Amino acid sequence: MDIKEIQSLIKFVAKSGASEVKLETDDIKITIRTGSLGNGSSEPTYVHTMPMAQPAMQAAPVQAEQPKPVADSTAEADKKKAEDDKYITIKSPIIGTFYRKPSPDKPVFVEVGDTIGAGDVLCVIEAMKLFNDIESEVSGTIVKILVDDSSPVEFDQPLFLVDPS
Fold first, then answer.
1. Order of all β-strands in the sheet with 20-24
2. Distance CA 75, CA 83 (A)
3. φ and ψ at 31, to 5 degrees?
4. Percent of the chain surpassing pLDDT 90
5. Do 33 and 45 meet the contact criterion of CB atoms below 8 Å apart?
6. Which region, left, alpha or beta, applies to residue 47 given φ > 0 means left and ψ of -120 to 50 means alpha?
7. Low complexity bias: where (predicted)?
8. Which residues of 110-142 are buried (b: 16+ CB within 10 A; e: fewer)?
9. pLDDT tens across 5-44, in order?
10. Cβ atoms 132, 102 nearer than 8 A
11. Which residues are CB-neighbours of 102 under 8 A, at least 6 positions away?
12. Of 87, 114, 157, 162, whose CA is between 20 and 30 Å from 5?
């Protein structure tokens, strides 16, 4: 489905008076919600497209490799999870595009290792042409930045790991 088909679908839904339409195909999922404006016309207020996971391809058998012990990989995953559990995860409060800088010619808000306080701006998320400052609700040290600059983010998606100690 290309952008012109999506745009015509949005126009059709807006004219139909439906409040929400969901369309799911093999490769995309689209939800369109409409809301009424003060002048009585219906205008699309939310469009979300998400690529669906591609089915795994069956590969031809390859020469057998020595299998790695499952217990070791499980133990490593458990150890990493235990380390991450001591950190506070700062999550996205909105859907939009994540930016680490206030503008392209400015420095980033925070780096790994920076000490932050409650109320410090960590990033901005652009949603519908509005740039929203995302402020920290905790004090601590940035341990990990989980999202690449200029990447789309979902509601409640982890953005930063913070060590509160």
1. 20-24, 28-36, 42-51
2. 12
3. -125, 130
4. 45
5. yes
6. beta
7. 57-74
8. beeeeebeeebebbbbeeeeeeeebebeeebbb
9. 777 777 777 777 777 777 777 777 777 776 644 444 444 4
10. no
11. 109, 124
12. 157
What would the two tokens of residue 53 be?
A: 């996971």
Maximum distance among all Cα pairs of the chain, rounded to whole angstroms = 69
| Contact of 116 with 123, CB cutoff 8 Å | no
> Looking at the whole model, is its pTM more than 0.90?
no
Identify residue 4 by its one-letter amino acid code. K
Residue type, 17: G
